Amino acid sequence: xxxxxxxxxxxxxxxxxxxxxxxxxxxxxxxxxxxxxxxxxxxxxxxxxxxxxxxxxxxxxxxxxxxxxxxxxxxxxxxxxxxxxxxxxxxxxxxxxxxxxxxxxxxxxxxxxxxxxxxxxxxxxxxxxxxxxxxxxxxxxxxxxxxxxxxxxxxxxxxxxxxxxxxxxxxxxxxxxxxxxxxxxxxxxxxxxxxxxxxxxxxxxxxxxxxxxxxxxxxxxxxxxxxxxxxxxxxxxxxxxxxxxxxxxxxxxxxxxxxxxxxxxxxxxxxxxxxxxxxxxxxxxxxxxxxxxxxxxxxxxxxxxxxxxxxxxxxxxxxxxxxxxxxxxxxxxxxxxxxxxxxxxxxxxxxxxxxxxxxxxxxxxxxxxxxxxxxxxxxxxxxxxxxxxxx
Length: 391
Fold this sequence. Notes:
This protein is an alpha/beta fold. It has helices spanning 2-8, 42-45, 54-64, 79-90, 105-120, 137-141, 146-149, 196-209, 260-263, 282-297, 300-314, 337-349, 374-390; strands at residues 21-25, 28-31, 36-39, 98-102, 124-128, 159-162, 177-183, 212-216, 240-243, 254-258, 322-326, 329-333, 352-353, 355-356, 363-366. The chain contains 13 helices and 15 strands. A 7-stranded mixed β-sheet has the order 4-10-9-8-7-5-6, sandwiched between helices. A 4-stranded mixed β-sheet has the order 1-2-3-13. A hairpin with a 2-residue loop joins strand 1 and strand 2 (28-31). Helix 3 packs antiparallel against helix 10 (282-297). The protein is globular.
């Protein structure tokens, strides 16, 4: 299978692992080599409830027996998309009330940017240096790393960048700014947290200038920080909320959410202001609804802080410089990209899957399923420490 993988499937790097997957269950991925691998990555924060969670599988099978795609988005009332949007509305603060379902986090970013420009009638977008929002042209335009953007220019015009957590830059937000888009926790840069007062002052400045605040919760959303969404830790509510990754528990999905007043501007002048064929697909919505329902009802979010603390207590080593992040999105600083890549490779050889951060390769990514047990955390940390002792 590996030979055919490299021959026929487009690659994203020149050094893809080509690991051959046989099956995945719970916190483990099983290879065709007959070995099992403890997963500390969860499909890059996507497998919220671990692999092949029975409630997600059951929801998919039940929906598959009824119908799959029946019509382009927004035309027909279908049970599972409606239930998913209703459950989101019931569990997010005002004024968030209406959800637009799409196929991925990057598409949700593009839709959110269009919505903000349409509602405000303005053109300028402000984003943050070292931010990451996806790889479609729109999402790439508001991502803040030039190395990853330069080969694809020209991108969207009138996009300006400010420093994360720099209060003096907030004055660059003016009455000409349609939207400020920010990751609630900067992901690719190493899971960097906003200062508490900073995010509140950012929201205040947006209100003063009539600018819409978009928060990108594609990674921290759906319980990963111990709250359903990370912004709930900071006492503010965005005008537009973007989600994806862990929303589907392992299926491709994204969404953006706002007040009804803002969202309805996509329905006219022009009509079909954003349109998607497969957004809101009933099979995907069934999986997403099952994921959200389980996250809300299982008590998993109450365990996140304790699990984070266990990681921090166990991962103490002279080669670990610091650990960034919150909840079960942690970035372990190992000092250099080359060393981090070697550690990740050697961990894989010992049955532990870890990864690295896109912009800052010296950071080792730890973003396991929320369902990971304390015993599995100890097992994985033991492997990682063993590798650090011998590398």
